[in-house]
Design brief:
This protein folds into three domains: 32-225, GAF domain (Beta-Lactamase, 2-Layer Sandwich); 232-368, Winged helix-like DNA-binding domain superfamily/Winged helix DNA-binding domain (Arc Repressor Mutant, subunit A, Orthogonal Bundle); 375-429, no CATH class. The chain is an alpha+beta fold. A five-stranded antiparallel sheet has the order 4-3-7-6-5, with helices on both faces. It is built from 17 helices and 13 strands. The protein is globular. Helix 4 packs antiparallel against helix 8 (208-228), helix 12 (323-332) packs parallel to helix 14 (354-374) and helix 15 (377-385) runs antiparallel to helix 16 (393-402).
Length: 429
């Protein structure tokens, strides 16, 4: 709470509310609008702004212009598949029960986004939805701060707190006719941010009741998720950035050694099944020993159990979620930044099995090509800052092209060029 002195009276003001007691909404809109103009003209932090809004403007300005419109990330079947599998789909009845009345009155919109700011559900009266669609406030659109600027659901995710954004407090001009209140929703078991619940409408939303209502709705959803527990999950395999794969079946972790990790990964990318000879070639190349392969597969079957691993051919009975599959799907969808976020490192980096080496190179090459093709300075920099990317000459050259005045990039390109030239000379016959 912030202390505000009015004569002899001291009021405690909630910094997450858009208006303080006694504010004239129309005057506040004009005042904030002028501050927004000064900010865009170069004034770093207008003194009349709420700190949460001023800080959000600064974050937004680093990514977008004030006339930007939120992009569409998901559509049609991709959107339907994604949101039906999202944890927040289980609490949509709660959202509709507690906030659906507002969405049906013709003046408000109920919206739910995921942890990346993608709108999954946007519901309300058709006429209100048409108005919101003019600024791409529609299912599948990306409303985090980096893509849509300051707004209640995007900023609630950024600061992990319920808040209101009032009219001209929005960074993007197309959104400034709206006022919204949003609250983040968390996984009660892990604390992980799942997304946010939002109510959008007119200036009358800038009151303490709307903020309390969305906050209470978020808490009710979290309480429900705590009671029902996690949904049944397919077996999950994590093999990126680690020498031994981690398998979880029904939430129970199973420890795997190096060879069993390699076999499991190979089986996940061949759901149709593989013969013992095929797996042996993937593991050992031409130096394959059929007896050794059969022994490894027999031990793996004892670890996994016959309900998971079948034979003749060897295949996994259940569908398996893998981290390498997640990265590949994100790349297929053109979502390079999310693929980079989901990529903790190369596939089983210590493995020299030919089949694993091929998979590793294929995924790395796809991700590198997508990053280079994006010409996104932040993505290139993220790759270079990772342990495996520090000596990537091509990526340093791309970064130097994007940041021509950065002396560190120029020096690093020169040093790596000399180093690689020396290595070639040393191995030349």
């Amino acid at each position: 709470m912030t202390r505000v002195t009015m004569g002899q009276e001291v009021l405690l003001v909630n910094p997450w509310l858009a208006l303080t007691p006694g504010d004239d909404p129309a005057e506040r809109i004009r005042q904030v609008g002028r501050a927004h103009e000064r900010f865009l003209a170069g004034e770093q932090r207008p003194p009349t702004m709420r700190p949460v809004v001023a800080e959000s403007w600064a974050r937004s300005a680093a990514h977008i212009r004030a006339d930007a419109t939120a992009p569409i990330d998901l559509a049609d079947d991709d959107l339907e598949a994604y949101r039906s599998a999202h944890p927040l789909s289980r609490v949509m009845p709660i959202f509709r029960d507690l906030l659906g009345g507002l969405a049906e009155d013709g003046d408000h919109i109920l919206a739910v986004c995921d942890e990346h700011g993608r709108l999954l559900w946007v519901e309300g009266h058709p006429s209100t939805l048409r108005g919101a669609a003019s600024m791409n406030f529609v299912p599948g659109a990306r409303w985090d701060e980096a893509h849509a600027g300051t707004n209640a659901p995007g900023t609630a995710l950024a600061v992990d707190h319920a808040l209101q954004i009032f009219a001209t407090e929005h960074f993007s001009h197309p959104a400034q006719r709206w006022t919204c209140a949003a609250a983040p929703v968390h996984d009660p078991g892990t604390g992980r941010l799942l997304g946010a619940i939002d109510v959008t409408g007119g200036d009358h939303l800038a009151n303490p009741h709307s903020l309390a209502l969305v906050r209470a709705t978020a808490l009710a959803a979290e309480a429900y998720l705590r009671g029902v527990g996690p949904p049944a999950q397919r077996p999950q395999v994590a093999a990126l950035g680690r020498d031994e794969a981690r398998l979880a079946v029904g939430g129970k972790p199973i420890r795997l050694g190096r060879r069993h990790s390699e076999l499991l990964v190979l089986l996940t990318v061949h759901p149709e099944g593989r013969t013992g000879d095929q797996l042996g070639f993937d593991l050992y190349g031409d130096d394959v020993n059929p007896v050794t392969v059969r022994a490894e597969l027999s031990r793996l079957r004892r670890i996994l159990g016959p309900e998971l691993l079948d034979s003749r051919p060897y295949r996994l009975r259940a569908g398996v979620e893998t981290d390498l599959g997640t990265v590949a799907r994100l790349l297929d969808a053109g979502r390079t930044a999310e693929a980079m976020d989901a990529y903790p490192g190369p596939l089983l980096p210590a493995s020299d099995a030919p089949g694993i080496v091929r998979l590793r190179r294929r995924l790395d090459d796809r991700l590198r090509a997508a990053i280079l093709g994006s010409a996104d300075r932040r993505l290139v920099q993220t790759w270079l800052n990772r342990p495996w990317g520090g000596d990537d000459l091509e990526m340093w050259q791309a970064y130097a092209g994007l940041m021509p005045r950065d002396p560190v990039a120029a020096r690093r390109v020169a040093a790596l060029t000399r180093e690689y030239a020396c290595n070639v000379s040393a191995t030349w016959p």
